[in-house]
Amino acid sequence: MTDQAAPLLERFRDLLGGEDEDFPISLGEGGTPLVHARRLGAELGLERLHLKFEGTNPTGSFKDRGMVLAVNRAVTAGARAVVCASTGNTSASASAYAAAAGLPCHVILPAGKVARGKLAQALAAGARLVMVDGNFDAALDAVRRLGEEGAAVVVNSINPDRLAGQQTAAWEVVDALGRAPDALALPVGNAGNITAYWRGFRHYADAGRTPGARLPRMLGFQAEGAAPIVRGTPVEAPETVATAIRIGNPASWAGAVAARDESGGLIEAVSDDEILEAQSTIARLEGIFCEPASAASVAGVRRLAAQGRIGARETVVCVLTGHGLKDPDIVQGEEGSLRPIPPDLASVRDAMEL
User: Fold this and answer.
1) Sheet holding 128-132: strands in order across?
2) CATH assignment at residue 123
3) For 241-264, what is the mean pLDDT?
């Protein structure tokens, strides 16, 4: 068991290979809650359903786990700047950690494909934004070339430090449960997270920190309009309301397939309607507001449970990768149905249907 009060990189220093490293930069990442979702579990027919809510990280998403390690090591290596391609969460995280390190942060954005809440975070932290006329994959290609030229350190998940840091979430799950879950479900976009979780579970077991050295089945879910791994071919123009996973050619494709196959798991697609229904249900039953992409994990598990492909007494963890305030546009659209009423008690009572 690790010291939960210590900063994330200090808690897992021995597993991250940083015994002699200095990790001066931290925004208090990690230590996110693992919620026993009793009401949601009852609706899905799962007694031991848990939600790992990564929306409580400093910038509101799981990206902070890998970013803190990538930026610390970039500073140690003498980086002059960091750069990333992003549909939103990576830009918010990179800009925050770069600001804490005193480094310029350059963000390459796909035109019109970024949630406003995430873009606001990057702007507030002083990131230098460049928008390209193309999708995320085109933006990432440009970033790769910049990294090869040495113009800046790339902090996308093609940077191995990003995936190394993201392993810490798997370690926290095992510590919180006292064992590995039977199955762990999460959204799949650029596929770095499912790759990192699987490596993390294996690493913890190999280090003797997982009772019984058991490993979970990895359950990955893509949006139907952005499901290249499910289709077996890149998607040239991915489309989904789940902006964080609107990616047509994942950088960690091979890692995701390895996680699926080695764990005896699966990667399937869920519809936008299923994603939005799951987002609403999570908030209504558990009080947790996650962004649409996050809800893909619950949407997928709901379908598997209905099909009898998950046992009622299995321990299942669904990863909610980001806070709902990161991508609020869908929910805010419901405000249009509200109409003002007179401010007297009778009118208010009638409106409340009391």
Assistant:
1) 128-132, 105-110, 82-85, 153-154
2) 3.40.50.1100
3) 95
Round to whole Å and give the CA distance between 286 and 280. Answer: 10
User: Where is 266: in which H helix or E strand?
Assistant: strand 266-270
Hey, is 223 helix, strand or coil?
strand
In a domain, residue 144? The reply is yes
Residue 293 resides in a domain: yes
Same domain assignment for residues 197 and 293: yes
What single letter denotes the amino acid at residue 80?
R
- Asked if residue 352 belongs to a domain, the reply is no
Residue at 111: amino acid letter? A
pLDDT for 95 equals: 97
Confidence of residue 334 (pLDDT cuts 50, 70, 90): low
Given a cut of 90, is residue 17 above it in pLDDT? no
The verdict on pTM exceeding 0.90 is yes
Q: Does residue 203 contact residue 167 with C-beta atoms inside 8 Å? A: yes
d(CA 15, CA 298): 30
Provide the residue range defining the domain that includes 235.
Answer: 8-61+162-332
Relative to beta strand 183-187, strand 153-154 is unpaired
Q: Contact 333/317 with Cβ under 8 angstroms?
A: no
191: tokens are 């596929």
In tens, the pLDDT along 114-166 reads 777 888 999 999 999 999 998 888 898 999 999 999 889 999 989 999 999 99
Question: Which of 258, 249, 167 lies closest to 220, judged by CA?
Answer: 258
Give me 348's structure tokens: 């208010």
- Do 57 and 167 fall into the same domain? yes
Looking at the fold, whether 89 and 209 belong to one and the same domain comes out as no
Is residue 2's pLDDT more than 60? no
- For residue 333, what pLDDT is reported? 60
207 lies in the same domain as 308? yes
Tally of structural domains, the chain: 2
DSSP letters, 151-195, are SSEE-STTSHHHHHHHTHHHHHHHHHHTS--SEEEEE-SSSHHHH
The answer, yes or no, to whether residue 338 has pLDDT greater than 80, is no
- Give the integer Cα–Cα distance in Å for 51 and 40: 10
153, 157, 163, 166 alpha-carbon torsion, rounded to 10°: 100
